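Module 6 notes. Inverse folding takes a fixed backbone as the condition and produces residue identities as the prediction. Think of it as a translation problem where the source language is geometry and the target language is the twenty amino acids. Below is one complete input and output pair. Work through it position by position during the lab.
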């Protein structure tokens, strides 16, 4: 069973995404911002990070920069999520090393297809 770190500041969105992922065989660890995500990563190994862009404390792009600068997490697959869908967010996420970018809301199928595709491509 693969473990996903879900970093999302909206409790409702976090719960919906967790339910979708868990119903499809994933273990989900949740964090409400980038700082909580870094703390979680210190305690548990994950195969993928699913991360919102806009969050308090530490946003998703800052978290992504921190992950890519750390040798331990440099190649950890990261899918970025945002409600805005703005090209600037996509460009910034790609520039920082995101593996994929999804606009919220996404269908359950699109979310699962993307997660599985990124996991398949990033498995060594």
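Target side of the pair, the amino acids:
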């Amino acid at each position: 069973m693969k473990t996903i770190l879900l970093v999302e500041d909206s409790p409702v969105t976090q719960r919906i995404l967790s339910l979708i992922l868990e119903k499809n065989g994933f273990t989900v660890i949740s964090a409400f911002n980038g700082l909580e995500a870094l703390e979680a990563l210190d305690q548990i190994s994950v195969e993928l990070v699913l991360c919102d862009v806009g969050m308090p404390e530490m946003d998703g792009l800052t978290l992504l920069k921190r992950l890519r600068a750390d040798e331990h997490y440099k190649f950890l697959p990261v899918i970025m999520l945002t409600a805005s869908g703005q090209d600037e967010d996509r460009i910034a996420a790609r520039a920082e090393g995101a593996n994929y970018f999804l606009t919220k809301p996404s269908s359950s199928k699109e979310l699962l297809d993307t997660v599985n595709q990124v996991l398949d491509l990033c498995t060594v």
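Reference fact for the lab report: The first strand starts at residue 3 and ends at 7.
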